[in-house]
Amino acid sequence: HRARSVNGVPVPLEQLDDMAERFNFVASTSELHLLKMEFLELKYRLLSLLVLAESKLKSWIIKYGRRESVELLLQNYISVIENSKFFEQYEVTYQILKRAAEMYAKANGSVEEAENVMKFMNETTAQWRNLSVEVRSVRSMLEEVIANWDRYSSTVASLQAWLEDAEKMLNQPEHAKKDFFRHLPHWIQQHTAMNDAGNFLIETCDETISRDLKQQLLLLNGRWRELFMKVKQYARADEFDRMRKEYLDSVATLSTFADCTNGKFSVPVEVSFLNVKMFIQDLEDIKQKVPVMEAQYKIITRTAQLVTKEVPQEEVNEMLATMTGIKAQLSKTKECCPVLLYEAQQLLSPLEELEKQITYFYESLEKVNEIISALNPEVQPAAVFKQNHQDLVAYQENCKKALSLIERNSQGILKFLASSKMLQHFDPLMLQKKVTEIQVTFQDMVKKTGDWRKNVEANSHLMKQFEESRAELEKVLQIANGYLEEKGNPEELLRKHTEFFSQLDQRVLNAFLKACDELTDILPEQEQHSLQEAVRKLHKQWKANTDHFGKSCPICEPVAFNIHKSRCPRGLLLM
């Protein structure tokens, strides 16, 4: 275009302009052409899937042949549709085509072309909707044909063999025929199944096979009809035995239910939370079973009507009496169960509250027993003893409050039972016994805690005496030690010692020893050791001081020794 020539040969200007115009047109429309080609490619790919489905469908919905050929069709269907994921392929292709169609119609700008594209998409969608339903139903149809071939083949084989045996039995004695033909209802079912399967195959198979099936069924049905007319009375006898057994089984079930409900309405129930809760659960089960039992009663009534036509009058009267009794019990159950259930539920909440109060009473009682059974409460620190005493009072008060609630609630429960007409079989004896036991237990606890307080107060007094006498004795020993360890003028020291010891009261030691004896009497053996150690320590101190005085007392010269010793506190333990 720039040279305006080709190999030196000039090109006319008009031709160059025409070529440039054509080239520009191709360049400007190439993107639209690409979109159109992508749309067309997907369009014909989708159409190929539709054509494949239609052609395969025609080969699958035909008049069928023998079982083997139908099995091959089913395998072909599985290979084409399921193994290749045909429906998934179509859905993916359709979604891609839908987006390509939208892009092409938008880029083209032509209203007519856009309408053509949308028309194709709508028609394809409608076509696939109908086609996919038919394709999806092919497998179930093929499987049904195969199942009917299996059913037909098996029933024909078994029925032919049975007909041969049955035809031979016609010449046998009556009891043998009756025994052989007692399963006739089963063969009636087999005969019906054979005809159902055969008629289905006649409708779905090709003409040749249908003709063969019709001929075979005609022969078998002829043999069956001829035989059945001679032995149909045995089917009736077997049917009677079946109905009789059904009647007896149902009567047994209904009688068991009636006996169970009658027991729940009359057998004594000991009043407690768990027993009443279990009773309510049983009533709820009975209430749920009542509609089922009523339905079963209606069924057995119809069965009984058929059975009564074949039995003696005496047995008929017995059956009618049985059915009347069952009906009366069902009516009673239906009427009484909701009322009884409601009143029992009214009782459950107070009993649950009573159980909680009883549990709380015994928990508090256990705490009381822990406190009053503790070893040596009198030797506990004052703060600990005070806290225990406060706890004891609190737990005792809890027991008292719990007992009051127990008595009030139990009276309310007993009053409710006395006023109820439906709960007359509820036995309150165990509840009353339990309340009485709690009352006795509470009185015993009150007595024990009173004795415990008296004992603790007495023991505390003895402990106080012991502590005071020990403190007094230790004080005297401390002063005596101070005098004996003092140094100075012997005559002055002798005067001080004489003055001190002349005023010393022998009863200080005696009071301490007496307090020791009294305290030892109340302490358990394992606790006496610490007390004995304290007394032994003081004795050892007395003895050590006495030995020290005899050896080195600076004022106890031979002339004055006897006089001084008689007044020296270190000699007190030797007296």
UniProtKB/TrEMBL annotation:
SUPFAM superfamilies, per the entry: Spectrin repeat
Subcellular location: Endomembrane system
Coiled-coil annotated spans: 97-124
Cross-referenced InterPro entries: Spectrin_SYNE1
Domain Nesprin-1 spectrin repeats region: 49-235
Keyword match Coiled coil: yes
Pfam families with a match to the protein in the record: Spectrin_SYNE1
Transmembrane residue ranges: none
Main location: membrane
Keywords: Coiled coil, Membrane, Phosphoprotein, Repeat
Full protein name: Nesprin-1 spectrin repeats region domain-containing protein
Source organism of this protein record: Gopherus agassizii (Agassiz's desert tortoise)
